[in-house]
Each structure stands twice: as C-alpha cells, then as structure tokens.
What does this fold into?
Amino acid sequence: MGKLIQFLLVAWCCLPIMAQETPGWKMAVISDIHIMAPELLQEDGAAFQKYVSHDRKMLKESPDLLKASVDALLEKHPDVVLVTGDLTKDGEKLSHEYVAQRLLKPLREAGIRVYVVPGNHDVNNPHAVVFLGDTAQRTATVSPDEFAQCYQDYGYGQAIARDEHSLSYVVQLNDSVRLLAIDACKYEENDFDRNICVTGGRIKPETMNFIRLQTADAAQQGCSMLAMMHHGLVRHWKWQDKVMADYLVDDWKKQAKAFGKLGLRLVFTGHFHAQDIAGFGKGNKAVYDIETGSTVSYPLPYRMIFFKGRQVQVTTDYIRKIPGFQSTEALDEYARQFAEVGINTIVRGMLPGKVPDTVALQAGEALSKAFIAHLAGDEKMPATYPAELKAACKALRSYSWKYAYALNKLGRYMYTDIFPEDNEWTIELDYAY
It folds into this structure.
C-alpha cells in the first residue's frame, strides 16, 4: 500500500509537467516606414508638394506614425520585430540615422530584437534630397556598406552568416528558429546622372546559393527558418506580374518554387503597401508570402505573428492615433483620402492628354476603390462596383481602348481576394517554429 501511495504521489506531481505545452513566442512585422528626417523639409513649397502629389505616402507624418507603432509594440512586447524594407523616404543618410539612432531604439532598449532589410528606396538613391521651398537639393545617401554599418544593432552585427554578394544575412531567433533576411534590391543599377532609382527586385544567383547553403545548415542544426525580404515572392493578384512586375522579384514562379523545395514556407514581405497573403505550391512545398502594408499608407497596419508549435497565427492591428488628429476615425479618414487623391493623380498622369479631366477622374475613382480595398486586404467587391467600373471603362474607351481595357482588368483583379485570408489567418504547418 505504501508503494502504491508513493507511486500515485509521484504521478500526481508529474501531471502538470506532462500536460504543459511547448511555450510559444511572438513576432511583429512593420513595413515601408519611409521615414523622412524632419531636417530634410527645410521649407515646404512647390518641390515637396509636387513630390507628394504623385505619391501615396504620408511623409510629413512618417515619424509620428512610426512612433505610434513603436509605442504599440512596446505594450505588446513581441520577442522580435521585423522591418521589411523601405526604411526611408529615399535613402537619405539623415533619415537612416534618425531611424536607427532614435525611432527604433526604444524597442531595443526594452529588450526587443529588431531586424531590418533594405528596400528599393534605401541604398545609393539619387532621389535623396533636401526640400528648399520651390527647389530641392541632393543630400547624402548611403552605400551598401554604410547601410550595414548604420544597422549594426538591427541584424548585421548579430548575423551568424552574411552573403558576400548582397546585404542578406542570417540570425538565430531562438534555439530552434533562424531568420533569413534577403536583400533582393537592384541599387547597383541606380543612375545618378539620369536620376533613376530602380524599383524592381531580383535574387542574384550568388545570393540564391547563399540561401541554399543556409537552409541546409539550419536543417543540419535542427532549426527551422523564416525569411523576410522587401519585394514580393508570390503574385498577390492576377495580372500583377504583367502590369506591376517591379513589385515582385524577377522570375517569381521559379524563385517561389525553389523556396518551397528548400522548406522556406513563410516569407514576410512589403513593397506594395498592401495587407495580403498569397500562396504558391502545394503540400509540404507550399510557400506563403505574407505581405504587410505600410505605416505611411492606408490603413496604417502592422502585424503580430504568434508561433506555437506547428501553428502560426497571423493577426493585424492598426495605428490608432498620432498628434494632430483628434480621433482614430479622423486619422483613418485622412489616410484613406490621402490614398484616393494619390491614386487619382497617378491615373491622370498615366492617361493620354486627350482624355478629358472628367473622364480621367471617373477612371481614377473607380480604380482607387479597388486599390484601397486591396491595400486593406480581405477585399469584398460591392454589388454596385461592376456597374461603376463598366461606366468608367465605357467613358474612357472613346479616347483609349487600351487604357479602358487595362482599367477593367485592374479594377476587377485588385478587388478580387485570393486565398487565404489577409488580416487574420492561422496555418498548421508540418513542422514547428
């Protein structure tokens, strides 16, 4: 009887340990923060207004928007924060220093590890300027080496491996998970004489070899691997690779297939400023591109990712308030209208001059509704939209059949969500993170 009681006591004491689940961990993702250091706007005027009129980024508010994101993340206190590129307006050295030395620093001081990767705006950018009222003057940008030096505390100084041919690197997130930060930018092709900054991306063959070596090493060490890069790996809407291919890496299908074979199932991206998740491949070779919208574009989102064994839960939250706006609703409406005006201006600039302003505005309004729905994710086309789009295309067709055809396709495809859900999604993988 004594031995039986002893056995039951031991078994009872062990029950909580036996029932205890593997503790999870959490990660946040912010993207396309596009910080413009305040010193760069020495005088507001025609030069800056012209820049923002052809853009959909809330540049003036960019520091306050990032501060709001950082404050929210300090409360949520993730283990890791990823910043998936386009850290600055246009690669200005002053903006990089502002990001690294001031804006992201509170996260590190709170014990939260922050890792960055460059975007197409961030390195060797001829568009780095100071605004001087009616004119703009070039200011210092950064080289690849200077970028890595600036962000020594944000991945490059903690790397367990660095690619010699790009700004790609690997860090150890915990005992069983590594992060592969991939630099897919083409800043070597930027042209200062012609004032060209290349938007598109690609993974160099040498960098792909680095990726293969690092995934093999991770597997050998019993580690799973996450990836992040700025450019999209997977097409997020039909026709994106036809009309906006610069937002995807070159040969995206080939690269996505390679990622799937290597076991890189989750890739966190940005660039398009949209909340969207898209998959490619099937079964244990499927890869998911989890794109995060911009902190300077509607709907001002950031993501929280929860890892627990084989389950990965993706959630979305939003910047709620910044100085100058009395409520969340006021900030949300301003961001939406800012995006609408930007898209209308872009559409007017793309259409032939012979198209009347009234017709161009009708086309811009139709496209902006689809575009903004895609930015927010989980698009649901209203029943009234097909007729509105049809009317805009009919009006435009009298002046340009080609643009009317493109408007019809873009309006429909961008308003059509592709599996899976974009903002709240849980996936069960065949291995644990």
Summary: Residues 1-21 have pLDDT under 50 and may be disordered.
